[in-house]
């Protein structure tokens, strides 16, 4: 099972190019789609979900060109849009029955799956309550359940963890991992740490282009020797933030422990640390700033 896009370009107008010559290959497992605001993530997702036809390029499902035949993919697709909204007067069970009918899932099978999914998403105690009374996080979980209904081969989730508390995020991650072996799962998110232990592959988009596509581990490995930690007096932090790309800072009794990105140590006493996915994301999306900082005089 695989989904590819070849030489995909998407323009909203003559001046507005959202995606430029993007090539991707997705296989079973979780792929994380990361990028700053406006990078083109939602445009790409809408194209893969067959809601937008690309200006140029091909969409291939199991090697077959389906650019002009979106229904081939639609029957195998589960999709959670960024602005998911269910009908407020329906209960989650009624809403999933409705979605199942649209997806042509036989009703008995659909009901069994709906109950399992709502249980896995911690909504069993609210099966018959109107969705309009739900919190944002509960509504989002109904959105996740409707996307998973019908055991889709391709699951596309745009910002799925928005509104979920940390406990629900962990539960969601476990549910996805349990399903990831036999389906392609693409997740767009701003919460980089959500992907750290779950995604086998990461795609970084920046200004409509793919700047990185590889294993999560390879991405982290590519950052070895580029992440540094150094304790600085609190008064220096602001000055430092203007010059260096800082991925984290932790207040301590004797100063601030700052995590910085650079291909050489920012200070003779700075210690190299194990890179995280967040470090890699910042490095690739703010490369120019990282290299600009390198040219500045060393600290100390
Ligand atoms: N319908 C549209 N008409 C015109 N321009 C659009 C349209 N949708 C998106 N764009 C533009 O295309 C570019 C990519 O937008 P897109 O929403 O795909 O990015 P994104 O990475 O999903 O951003 P965010 O993280 O903010 O959701 C942006 O410059 C955006 O302004």
From TrEMBL:
GO terms for molecular function: ATP binding; ATP hydrolysis activity. Keywords: ATP-binding, Nucleotide-binding, Transport. It holds the Pfam family ABC_tran. The keyword Transcription regulation does not apply. Transmembrane segments: none annotated. Residues 3-232 form the ABC transporter domain. PROSITE patterns: ABC_TRANSPORTER_1, ABC_TRANSPORTER_2. Belongs to the ABC transporter superfamily. This is ABC transporter ATP-binding protein.
């Amino acid at each position: 099972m695989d989904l590819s896009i070849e030489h995909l370009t998407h323009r909203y107008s003559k001046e507005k190019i959202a995606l430029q010559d993007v090539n991707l290959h997705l296989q079973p497992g979780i792929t994380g789609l990361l990028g700053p605001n406006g990078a083109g993530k939602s445009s790409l997702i809408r194209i893969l979900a067959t809601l937008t036809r690309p200006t140029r390029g091909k969409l291939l499902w199991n090697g077959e060109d389906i650019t002009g035949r979106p229904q081939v993919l639609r029957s195998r697709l589960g999709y959670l849009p960024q602005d998911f909204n269910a009908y407020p007067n329906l209960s989650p069970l009624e809403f999933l029955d409705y979605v199942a009918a649209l997806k042509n899932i036989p009703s008995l099978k659909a009901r069994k799956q709906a109950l399992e999914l709502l249980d896995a998403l911690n909504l069993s105690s609210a099966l018959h309550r109107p969705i309009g009374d739900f919190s944002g996080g509960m509504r989002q979980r109904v959105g996740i359940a409707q996307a998973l209904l019908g055991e889709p081969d391709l699951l596309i989730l745009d910002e799925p963890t928005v509104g979920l508390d940390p406990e629900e995020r962990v539960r969601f991650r476990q549910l996805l991992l349990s399903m990831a072996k036999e389906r392609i799962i693409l997740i767009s998110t701003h919460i980089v740490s959500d992907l750290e232990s779950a995604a086998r592959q990461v795609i970084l988009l920046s200004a409509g282009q793919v700047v990185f596509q590889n294993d999560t581990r390879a991405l982290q490995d590519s950052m070895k020797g580029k992440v540094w930690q150094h304790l600085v007096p609190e008064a220096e932090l602001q000055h430092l933030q203007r010059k260096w790309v800082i991925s984290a800072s932790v207040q301590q009794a004797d100063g601030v422990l700052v995590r910085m990105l650079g291909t050489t140590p920012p200070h003779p006493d700075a210690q190299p640390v194990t890179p995280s996915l967040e470090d890699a994301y910042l490095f690739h999306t703010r490369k120019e700033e990282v290299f600009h900082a390198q040219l500045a005089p060393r600290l100390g």
